[in-house]
Design brief:
With 453 residues, the protein is an all-alpha fold. 79% of the residues lie in helices and 0% in strands. The chain has helices spanning 18-49, 51-78, 80-93, 97-100, 102-129, 136-144, 160-167, 172-177, 181-197, 201-226, 228-243, 246-278, 282-288, 290-299, 302-316, 321-334, 337-353, 360-373, 384-394, 401-406, 409-452. The two termini are 38 Å apart. Residues 1-19, 148-152 and 437-450 have low confidence and may be disordered.
Length: 453
């Protein structure tokens, strides 16, 4: 029953290998510090000295830093299509909705609704606060010289009905080749559902093959992330050497918006759902789950937090064991509200940073992809990164902003993982309440039948 995919959005190697994780994070931080420091120094000296020195800085940016950063980004893009496909397929088929029946359907419905609420909060905040605004002219010049990833071909019919029709690919291979990632996601969802419902020996072997592909892709991402200190340092050097200190101010605004969105979702949306649907006091709920919150924040890993979450659900929240275990285990693979919000905010922030105006239709598409792709980002080191890169390609936004985001990703990973784990526990309360009601009705019916006899 437990899904094979095990964690929300861990940005690094296996969290069970603590020394290796700390070493990897230390190397990335070193790359970030070196890239930012060298870039700011080059920007200041170039502005004061000008002439040949400034030309030398631009040569280093265009001939060294940008190519190195582009190679790092292209390695990530290379893994997007297979990663999203296999992760989504495994995420769906491991749920085994046919076997779990109403329990699984309640969990899936809750996940889609709350994830949509999370992304909506993020999109509203970015549009109101506009953390990426303020560098329009310089950023547009940078965007003009950047090599954006291939984007999906826009559908001829941009009406709501036309977009709905074009979501379903007529050729999934063509969809992957042309960058139509929404088509790939829809095909993966159908494929995963069919694989879950097929119980033949051949289908079981196919599931093992897909799981094996998933494991291999995780290993590949681990290898790519070993280059992250160099790639991130190069990207940040290129950006800060051109734009200087103001770009770091924009980054601070981005962090503030993400934290505000996560806070509103965790303490606002979850509280309303707990009180309005489940009838539980939000204050008591957060008191009961504080141990899981601290564990999630300190480890930035839902995988490492899962045992604590199970303990909290059974001992503090007093939830039925069978339903809470299913919801918490499945939720670690699918119910990623914090991650979905983070992806939506990041995409719109980078678009604003590069002066790309997105229509309401494009923002709705971003929201839809964040909700759907959230099912397939679990258990992947730096799992948000390929999804964000994919969406940037869909809306024609240069990918250089990813280097800037990686500079604060570790801290934000700790925060959004906390929201993810709290969301799993809130979902367990909701689903378990429905199970208790059905069990109570069944018991009353059985008693009435016995009296009638």
């Amino acid at each position: 029953m437990p899904p094979v995919l095990t964690s929300h959005d861990e940005s690094g190697p296996d969290v069970c290998d603590t020394p290796r994780l700390m070493n990897a994070q230390g190397r990335i931080l070193l790359g970030i510090g070196f890239g930012v420091g060298l870039g700011l120094a080059a920007n200041l000296l170039g502005a004061s000295l000008g002439g040949e020195f400034q030309q030398g800085v631009m040569w280093a940016v265009e001939k060294v830093a940008q190519p190195v950063g582009q190679i790092f980004l292209r390695l990530l893009f290379m893994l997007v299509v297979p990663l999203i496909f296999v992760a989504l397929v495994m995420g769906i088929c491991e749920l085994d909705l046919k076997q779990m029946g109403k329990l699984g359907m309640r969990m899936l419905g809750y996940t889609v609704f709350v994830s949509a609420m999370a992304v909506l909060i993020g999109l509203v905040l970015v549009n109101v606060i506009e953390p990426g605004k303020g560098l329009s002219d310089e950023v547009r010049a940078l965007a003009a010289t950047s090599k954006a990833p291939a984007a999906a071909i826009a559908p001829a019919d941009a009406s709501p009905v036309g977009i709905l029709v074009n979501m379903v690919p007529d050729n999934p291979v063509k969809a992957a080749a042309t960058g139509d990632m929404l088509g790939v996601i829809i095909f993966a969802l159908f494929f995963g559902a069919a694989l879950s419902a097929t119980k033949t020996d051949a289908a079981m072997r196919l599931r093992d093959v897909i799981q094996g592909a998933y494991d291999v892709l995780m290993r590949l991402i681990d290898w790519v992330l070993k280059l992250a200190p160099i790639g991130v340092g190069a990207l940040l050097f290129a950006m800060t050497a051109r734009l200087g200190l103001p770009i770091l101010v924009q980054l601070g605004s981005f962090v503030g918006v993400v934290l505000l969105g996560l806070g509103l979702h965790m303490f606002g949306v979850y509280s309303l759902l707990l009180r309005g649907i489940s009838g539980m006091s939000p204050v008591q709920f957060f008191k009961d789950v504080r141990l899981a919150m601290v564990t999630a924040f300190s480890t930035a890993s839902s995988n490492a937090t899962l045992p604590t979450a199970l303990k909290v659900a059974e001992e503090n929240l007093k939830l039925p064991r069978h339903s809470s275990r299913f919801v918490l285990t499945a939720g670690s693979a699918m119910n990623q509200n914090g991650t979905a919000l983070y992806e939506g905010v990041t995409v719109l922030f980078i678009a604003q940073l590069f002066g790309v105006d997105l229509s309401l239709g494009q923002q709705a598409l971003v929201m839809l992809v964040c909700v759907l792709a959230g099912i397939g980002t679990a258990g992947v080191p730096a799992g948000s990164l390929p999804v964000i890169a994919m969406i940037l390609g869909m809306i024609h936004v240069p990918p250089e902003g990813l280097g800037l985001i990686l500079g604060v990703d570790r801290f934000l990973d700790m925060c959004r993982t906390t929201v993810n784990v709290v969301g799993d526990l809130a979902a367990a309360v909701y689903v378990s309440q429905g199970e208790e009601h059905r069990e109570g009705d069944t018991a009353l019916q059985a008693a009435a039948a016995a009296e009638a006899e």
